[in-house]
Specification:
Helix content of chain A: 40-55%
Number of domains of chain A: 2
Oligomer: homodimer
CATH superfamily of the largest domain in chain A: Aldehyde Dehydrogenase, Chain A, domain 1
Shape of chain A: globular
CATH class of the largest domain in chain A: Alpha Beta
Largest sheet of chain A: 7 strands, parallel
Number of strands of chain A: 16
Number of helices of chain A: 15
Structural class of chain A: alpha/beta
Largest interface: A-B, 68 and 68 residues
CATH architecture of the largest domain in chain A: 3-Layer(aba) Sandwich
Strand content of chain A: 15-25%
Chain lengths: 415, 415
């Protein structure tokens, strides 16, 4: 069985080195790592082929096989990802605040790395390079636990990245991959307090739940999105259809896709026929309450469970309400704190919605699909936080840092 | 058994109301609550007397009885605490950032309440009023679980605060006290995900550990402090003695007291005799390595365990090192991420120490006793975080808030 404490100790030793690296040195290492991934792509693809063969032999679902598969294009995307991270500003060392106390103490709040970040993810091997890049740029050591299906691919990528670091004279323990596929090791990883400062799960609802339930290390919960769009009585209905179609169908398997629609009773008769026609064209199943089914045909009756479900599929639940307040209450009851939108021309209702809805990102007249580190202009993304502690919504480089207070005096003592 | 889900639902209903209250209304309620505590002090003291009687009958340690005891002075301090919180600026609603994306989306980061805060604490009943005040000012609902020894006192304070809220036309569910003393209820409270947004334990190391190990709700770890002072080769030794004596003996039972001393070999012969004399006067036991014991008499040999112990007592461990780097490595190995200080006249060594030590607060030429929300000028304190997620060091009002992104568009969709 993997000696996690030993891995933890190596990560802790590495974090002190990484936290002190200059931006320039970190950027040069990221570019070296990018070049190495490109140069050694054949090796990575061969390892990936091994994973794919085993997956096919085990009868893996085609969707999962697709997530697992690497090709020259996907490796190029990893290479470009590291280069983009090198080009981003380094948040470490930023002085967030400085103040002088009446006793003369000068207190500064400095942005510093988290230390050791743990990441537990599923079958996409590109996460190995992406997560390393983001953690490394912010001066953190990372310990990765990928899906067992992608073990050979992940190990090949890890080997390339570690070699690149050594070539740059930097400790390769900046990245360590747990290669043990024993579940007990994963559970022990979630309890590596004293070594791991934060654990970020990246994957489906089941993985996230398992991490939240078993981890004693602080966790950032990410990525489950039961996102709502509310069409207000005073909405531009063409805009509403346009935004709903984008949020529901532009990409169905993502956390910022729309799963549930809430409509004001007053727009029911005008909105629903045009919306239903558009949804039908994309083969979206509608599960709706009675008032909706009075207006359009071919809907499945919605249950309470539907309102709480993140379908990640061509299905949309629809609920009718009589006021903005009722919409807000419904959304707060069923959402996952990810992204919810209102379509309205009323500034008052917009502000009411922005204040009332409890979610990381609340939209007025725009698609929920914009909840994304790149779309927000962060230049990178490690995930989308749906909890309230530390970070909320898209997490870029800054969200992988913490701060320390430095206090400088001239011998002050407390009286 | 207490129906925690029902309490959770009441807290969630309350959080939406509290998050929308004006600063003025919150302040008036805090002042009303302060007046009510003063007016009904006899009732609170009677309840406290009941707790004290039971404590005495059960042979409770005098130190614990003292923590539990209320008198007119301590009630006055609670009253003043609430008034001070009313006078502090309200952080809720502050716009932290606004930016416009190339597609015209206007994104703002707004400071909002956490929602529902859970607090688990030990025998001091004043925490009931203090924690309510801080959570209420920041628009949060709070669920409290105090020590069983203080149940009558806490219940009396809760009743007064709830009545005061009702008098102001505000939901009394802004504060709810769990009155069940069954351990299973406390454990269930730590797993009230979906209702409680963050759990803050306030108490000794045992309580903190139990919460970290059992909670599935996000936790902010607080308050264990194995704080170090390092006396560099280039230090003002009079200042060093002064700061060490303050940090070690001004108040021994607090988390920001100094527990361990690290000295550069070069100051050993000059520093130790004067320091030992001062410590002896205060009856501080010295547990030291061999090089220290060569210079001064009457020391107990230090073990590895000593270096990792938060004594909260008249005991100080002492370790000799040969460089700043060795001091930093020793401190990072044994500290609890709370507060560590260097005494030095070298700007270079000071900067090396500030960068290298991994702690919430790192000091140059000042006592670690300043790690405190009031001393930092925050005007209040809910605790001192020793974790890296969300908040580090003294936590005031701002640290009881999170943010949400508001995104305003004109029909933008993602392509």
């Amino acid at each position: 069985m993997t000696d996690l404490k030993q891995m933890g100790e190596r990560a802790v030793a590495a974090k002190y080195v990484l936290g002190a690296l200059s931006t320039d040195k970190k950027n040069r290492a990221l570019l070296t790592a990018a070049d190495a991934l490109k140069m050694r792509s054949r090796e990575i693809l061969a390892a990936n082929e091994k994973d794919l063969e085993e997956g096919r032999a085990a009868g893996m679902h085609p969707g999962l096989l697709d997530r697992l598969a690497l090709d020259e294009g996907r490796i190029k995307a990893m290479v470009e990802g590291l280069r983009q991270i090198a080009a981003l500003p380094d948040p470490v060392g930023e002085v967030l605040e400085t103040f002088t106390r009446p006793n003369g103490l000068v207190i500064s709040k400095r942005r510093v790395p988290m230390g050791v970040i743990g990441i537990i993810y599923e079958s996409r091997p590109n996460v190995t390079a992406d997560a390393f890049g983001l953690c490394f740029k912010t001066g953190n050591a990372v310990i990765l636990k990928g899906g067992r299906d992608a073990l050979s691919s992940n190990a090949a990528i890890e080997a390339v990245l570690r070699d690149a670091l050594e070539d740059c004279g930097i400790t390769p323990d900046a990245i360590q991959l747990i290669k043990d596929t024993d579940r007990a090791v994963t559970t022990a990883f979630m309890r590596l307090n004293g070594y791991v400062d934060v654990l970020i799960p990246r994957g489906g609802a089941g993985l996230i739940r398992a991490v939240v339930e078993n981890s004693t290390v602080p966790v950032i919960e990410t990525g489950t999105g039961n996102c709502h769009i509310f069409v207000d009585e005073d909405a531009d209905l063409t805009m509403a259809v346009n935004v709903i179609m984008n949020a529901k169908t532009q990409r169905i398997g993502v956390c910022n896709a729309c799963e549930s629609l809430v409509i004001h009773d007053k727009v029911r008769e005008k909105l629903l026929p045009m919306l239903a026609a558009a949804l039908r064209e994309k083969n979206v199943e509608i599960r709706a309450d009675e008032r909706v089914r009075e207006v359009i045909d071919g809907c499945v009756p919605a249950t309470t469970k539907d309102y709480g479900t993140e379908y990640l599929d061509y299905i949309l639940s629809v609920k009718t309400v009589d006021s903005v307040d009722e919409a807000i209450a419904h959304i707060n009851r069923y959402n996952t704190g990810h992204s919810d939108a209102i379509i309205t021309n009323s500034a008052e209702h917009a502000e009411q919605f922005l204040n009332g809805v409890d979610a990381a990102c609340v939209y007025v007249n725009a698609s929920t699909r914009f909840t994304d580190g790149f779309e927000f202009g962060f230049g990178a993304e490690i995930g989308i936080s749906t909890q309230k502690l530390h970070a909320r919504g898209p997490m870029g480089l800054k969200e992988l840092t913490t701060y320390k207070y430095t206090v400088c005096g001239t011998g002050q003592v407390r009286s």
